[in-house]
Design goal:
The chain is of the alpha+beta class. The protein is about 45% helix and about 10% strand. It has one domain: Cytochrome P450 (Cytochrome p450, Orthogonal Bundle), CATH 1.10.630.10. The strands form five sheets. Strands 1-2-3-10-7 form a five-stranded mixed sheet, sandwiched between helices. It has a three-stranded antiparallel sheet with strand order 6-13-14. Strands 4-5 form a two-stranded antiparallel sheet. Strand 8 and strand 9 form a beta hairpin. The radius of gyration is 22 Å and the shape is globular. This is Cholesterol 24-hydroxylase.
Length: about 475
């Protein structure tokens, strides 16, 4: 097994000192793991005290550890998300629960909420919020105003998920002062800081800790109100939306395992993780389209052919936007919002001829594998043709939503995001931006933080919709 020998390995602490230093300097990113994988091979060993962890970057390992239910999520890692600075956060949610039977029970309850009929019902909310987004962007499209596309996308996805999943009218996009978006922002910042094990003992960070705890309490309080109101409506025979919350409550009643704290855990998970990952995915895709005008032009042609002068996007339209789907998949290859996942080995395994002992934490990283030459030719080139129907498929090298039984239930929202991307690409020209102008910051998810400039242009279907051109013409920093 390969050992990290490029740095001093403490007999007691292993590689933790160097990792902690990188965390404090905001340098411990997926790119570091990529460097290790390219230098040391498909299985890289990392020591931390008496514990052994390995980074596995080979299809054989991905298939073994993700496709089989016998490898649970690592309770040490995912258990750390149970609370955030002492406040119950994700708890025992669908993402964090490690026991397979407990996870399967939750998944069984929630699967119907992500059916085709649910997605069709989501389109009305999506179209409404997409129209609101376009109106916001038109006001900024003067070619001079810098603004955060990520902030805009975060607010619109929060509005969509809030209304479609929980019946909440948040108005995050229209009201900058609404409390929930600000609370989520503070929580994401807190998650990033929580990677430093000494953060809670630093005198200068106590205000941040307090604000993070208050933000978590606010989200759980809002969630509790939603649950109580919806449960009362169901019990009184009132008509309730067939959304995620209704499905969870009805399934919970059938299972006769009423646990409001666990329901709140999943409320927080869908609300925070769902909107954050969707917003990041769409922002990176906008950035990539701005960098590659020839790709944007082809996407425009497809959208024109499929939608014509239609004002709204229908669910059936999404399946016809095949090239735009390829663009989204390529964006996820290079910029996956969630870069990887972890498993805990309960038995010894041999991967790629290398023996991995029992009780080892396994890191599986789609960001790393998606950028390796051995799996993708010219990996740093943005090329949607990699995902065309006739292109060779490098199996078990691409898993932005994970794979196997514990793949992300929320990936259905990625299908709907194709509709938002059509608004970016529908009838607009684009000028590129230099690669060195693109910045991303590793928070709890991969984020695109570069400010964008807008330039307005009249659509050929101006009678249908006056739209705005989103051009990442110039990025000036984080």
């Amino acid at each position: 097994m390969t050992l990290l020998t490029f740095i001093f390995c403490s007999f007691l602490f292993g590689h933790l000192p160097i990792i902690w230093r990188m965390v404090r300097k905001q340098e411990f990113t997926p790119d570091v793991l990529l460097q290790w994988a390219e230098k040391y091979g498909p299985v890289v060993r990392i020591n931390a005290f008496h514990r052994i962890s390995v980074l596995v970057v080979c299809p054989e390992g991905v298939k073994e550890f993700l496709m089989s239910p016998q490898h649970p999520k690592d309770p040490t890692v995912y258990g750390s998300l149970f609370s955030l600075f002492g406040e119950r956060f994700l708890g025992n949610s669908l993402v964090t629960v490690c026991n397979h039977e407990h996870w399967h029970k939750q998944r069984r309850i929630m699967d119907p909420a992500f059916s085709r009929s649910y997605l069709i019902g989501l389109m009305e909310t999506f179209n409404e919020k997409a129209e609101e987004l376009m109106e916001k962007l038109e006001k900024k499209a003067d070619g001079k105003t810098e603004f955060s596309m990520l902030s805009m996308m975060s607010r619109v996805t929060m509005d969509v998920i809030g209304k479609a999943a929980f019946g909440l009218e948040l108005n995050a996009l229209s009201d900058d002062q609404t409390p929930l978006p600000n609370a989520v922002t503070k929580i994401m910042e807190g998650l990033n800081k929580a990677r430093d094990p000494f953060i809670r003992f630093m005198p200068g960070k106590q205000k941040m800790l307090k604000e993070t705890r208050e933000s978590v309490r606010l989200l759980r309080r809002v969630g509790k109100q939603c649950i109580d109101q919806r449960r009362e409506a169901i019990q009184n025979g009132k008509e309730a939306s067939m959304d995620i919350l209704t499905q969870i409550l009805k399934g919970d009643a059938l299972e006769e395992t009423r646990d409001d704290e666990n329901i709140l855990d999943n409320f927080i998970t869908f609300f925070v993780a769902g909107h954050e990952t969707s917003a990041n995915q769409m922002t990176f895709t906008v950035m990539a389209l701005g960098q590659h005008p020839e790709i944007l032009e082809r996407a425009q042609a497809e959208v024109d052919e499929v939608l014509g002068a239609k004002r709204d996007v229908d669910y059936e339209d999404l399946g016809k936007l095949t090239y735009l789907s390829q663009v989204l998949k390529e964006s996820l290859r290079l910029y996956p919002p969630v870069s990887g996942t972890l498993r805990r080995l309960e038995k010894e395994h041999v991967i790629n001829g290398i023996k991995i002992p029992a009780n080892t934490t396994v890191f599986l990283n789609t960001y790393v594998m998606g950028r390796m030459e051995k799996f993708f030719k010219d990996p740093l080139t943005f090329d949607p043709e990699r995902f065309s129907k006739d292109a060779p498929k490098p199996y078990y090298c691409y898993f932005p939503f994970s794979l196997g039984p514990r793949s992300c239930i929320g990936q259905v929202f990625a299908q709907v995001s194709r509709g938002l991307e059509h608004l970016v690409s529908k009838h607009w020209a684009s000028s590129g931006c230099a690669d060195h102008g693109c910045w991303w910051a590793p928070e709890a998810t991969l984020m695109c933080t570069a400010p964008l400039l807008l330039r307005q242009k009249i659509s050929p279907h101006a009678h249908d919709r006056h739209v705005s051109q989103m051009l990442p013409q110039e990025q000036t920093g984080i």
